[in-house]
Amino acid sequence: MDGDNETQRQKKRRKLPLWKKILFSLLPLLCLFAAAEIYLRIYPPYKRIVGRTSGRYVVPDKELVWKLAPVKEGYRAVNDVGFRDAPMNWNAPHKMLLLGDSISWGDCVPHTEKIYPQVCERILSKRIGEDVEIINTGTPGYSSFQELKLLQMKGGEFKPEVVVLQFCLNDVVDRYRTIAAYGGDSEFLGIDTRSACHGFAALSRYSSVVETITRYLQRKGRRYEEYQVKNLVKRDLSPEIKGAWETTFADIEKMRETAASLGAEFMIVITPFKFQLDDPEKQRIPQDTLMAFAKEHGIKVLDLLPAFAEHKDENLFADADHFSERGHEIAAAELADALNGMLRKTDGDGRKKTLQP
Hints:
With 357 residues, the protein is an alpha/beta fold. Helix content is 41%, strand content 13%. It has a domain at 79-174 and 227-344: SGNH hydrolase (Rossmann fold, 3-Layer(aba) Sandwich), CATH 3.40.50.1110. Strands 4-3-5-8-9 form a 5-stranded parallel sheet, with helices on both faces. β6 (187-188) and β7 form a beta hairpin.
């Protein structure tokens, strides 16, 4: 009798649909995955970066990963076009679009009128006797790929005469440290940067197990510790730094092309790090690297390191790379001199002619 029952059970098992057989065989793995998911949500293995400035002042953005929050009042207030700047002067005869990061945003400077774009704007307007509008789109944490995207999105709307890229040395390496799509941390300034991921990595937004696997593979493929600003000043660059430079160069070349398609001139302003003032000649390898690329591609460059080195006994920095109010004054004066020859003053017939420095 027992033998007959066993035979019947075996027949029933053989009659199970294929999908049920697969499900039963995968059940142990599903249980293991669920247990791992719960554990990794409670004890995530990776430390996530959170912005050092308190308060939420950026919000997620599908195209740019993050953008400035629509704050109306206070230190982080934005203007009518969504940037930390004075109200937009749409009628100004001269418009310049400034792309940049937290230096141009004015980190550590509480009043926007003290930030170098606005100071430069006043200098130029007084010098040529016409209104100059420098549209300051500086956003904390931005790298060249976000600045390129912003130019592509907003350039046609603003119709700038000149496009200026404020370039900080950490623009080369920060994306690899802060943005999940490039192998960095998945959180920056309170924003989940995994929205920039594609393919299998995009699943990391929903699964801690997938996030752990993805980030392990990313970090195994890249020597994460190489992505430091101090490694940019070495003469023998690592493959990681060389690759980061090439990625940055590609973004900059696309910016130049986009500016040209808008009928605008393009210029780079290189902002130094404080440590470079200790020995400007030996520490300027990143500047020379970028300037060599710019020369090859016909891009004008303003290197602020020499001017800052001349005033190194003054209090020019609020921290490692953000300027004090005095630093912003020097940057504004240097930028005004560089931009002066790029402006086209309106003559009596409404046409524009190039101003000389």
